[in-house]
Amino acid sequence: MKPKHFQKDKASIALFVLFIFLFGLRIYFFIYPGEENYNASVWGGIYQIIALFGALCGLYLSELWGGRKSLMGRVNLAFAWGLLAQSFGQSVYSYHFFQGGAVMYPSVGDIGFFGSVIFYIYGVLLLAKASGVKVSLGSFISKIQAIFVPLALLTLSYWFFLRDYIIDWNSPIKTLLDFGYPLGQAFYVSIALLVLLLTRNVLGGAMKKPIVFFLAALVIQYFSDFTFLYQSNSGTYVAGGIVDFMYFLSYFAMAWSLIQLGATFEKIKNS
Q: Which pTM was predicted?
């Protein structure tokens, strides 16, 4: 049976309770790290719960919007599957770690992590279409923004991560991922930013808040992956450390974005 209502307040409270619990647990494990930082590593394996919660919200909301048959339904599905892909990647990396091995990059887990990049690109393209970006591309200023924003982010990604990169043809998958992660994420962040810049009073302004939250979530995700790649290549990555905390924040922001999209649905339905 298709759901008819989204209880934003209950979903928001549940998300914040989960966030506070996991945040408090991380502080506790920081004070009591255990032998060889074992407790922090445990936290690095369980904080993906917040991604799973956000994915469930997204799947539920997709049905509210009409599922795959509607544009906004597919938007919710894309971001929900992106969170599920992230959770898969986290699970695989945690499994390798607790089996006593080093955190391997690349690994099977990168099917999930890189898959989330594809889902997020698809999601922001659908969001752009739903927000009427094409209507706003006619002005000269909008055309400049449409060229400058993606170009600036792609240049930034290249300059900070890839300009001194030495291609190793003996590891083609790693090379592909090293280029694909920062460039793919720069693309979806730039599109999300363009959606925010180019839309004008979409659906009476109802879409502005969800778009801002999606943009924030995608930016945090971008810097999380950026930092992970840097630490992985420099051999400084620590399970449950700053990178995992950044991922934790990005999952929370994405889950909150989906909840805001649900609140938007209720406003549109009731207006």
A: 0.83
CATH of residue 260: 1.20.1070
87 belongs to a structural domain: yes
Residue 3 placed within a domain? no
Number of structural domains found in the chain: 1
The residue segments making up the domain with residue 165 are 8-270
**In which residue are the tokens 């302004």 written?**
205
Flag the least confident range among 16-20, 81-85, 97-101. 97-101
User: pLDDT for 40-72, tens place per residue?
Assistant: 888 988 999 999 999 999 998 888 878 888 888
Domain assignment present for 213 = yes
